[in-house]
Amino acid sequence: QVQLAESGGGLVQPGGSLRLSCRASRSIDSIYTLGWSRQAPGKQRELVAAITSAGSTTYGDSVKGRFTISRDTAENTVYLQMNSLKFEDTAVYYCLGGGHSDLSDYDYRGQGTQVTVSS
C-alpha cells in the first residue's frame, strides 16, 4: 500500500501561481501513472494532469498551457506547477496513482489540498 500526501495548496489571487507537491510513502518507480484531479463544490471530479513512469503527460483541456506536471523519482514526489490561476481553478486537488495513463481508475489517492483563487 502507498500513502500519498499532498501539500502546497492555499489562497492565491487570479493570475498568481502555486506549486502542489505529492509525496509517496515509498518508491514511485512501481506506480505507472501519478497525477492530479480536482473537485469543486457541485461539480464532477476532473482530471487535471497525469504523468506516466515513461514521462508521458496528459492534461485537462482547461489547464493546458498553464499547468505543468513533473515527477521526481529520487524524491518520490510528483509536482503540479500552476500558473495564471483563474477563479475556476478553485477546488480540492487530489493526488492519484495507478495503472491507467489517464487515471480514469486509480489505486491510491491522497487526502486532498484546497486551492482557492480569489481576489
Give a written overview of the molecule.
The chain has 119 residues and is mostly beta strands. 0% of the residues lie in helices and 49% in strands. The chain is built from no helices and eleven strands. The strands form two sheets. Strands 2, 4, 5, 6, 9, 10 and 11 form a seven-stranded mixed beta sheet that branches. It has a four-stranded antiparallel beta sheet with strand order 1-3-8-7, with no helix packed on it. A hairpin with a 4-residue loop joins strand 5 (46-52) and strand 6.
What is the gist of this entry?
Helix content is 0%, strand content 49%.
The major sheet is characterized as:
7 strands, mixed
Question: Uncertain regions: pLDDT < 50 for 5+ in a row?
Answer: none
Which class of secondary structure composition applies to the elements? Answer: mainly beta
Percentage of residues assigned to helices: under 10%
Question: Can you count the helices?
Answer: 0
Distance between the termini: 40 Å
| Envelope shape | globular
pLDDT averaged residue by residue: 95
Strand percentage lies at: over 45%
Radius of gyration (CA) equals 13 Å
String of helices and strands = EEEEEEEEEEE
Number of strands: 11
Features:
119 residues; 4-stranded antiparallel sheet; 7-stranded mixed sheet; mainly beta; single chain; 11 strands
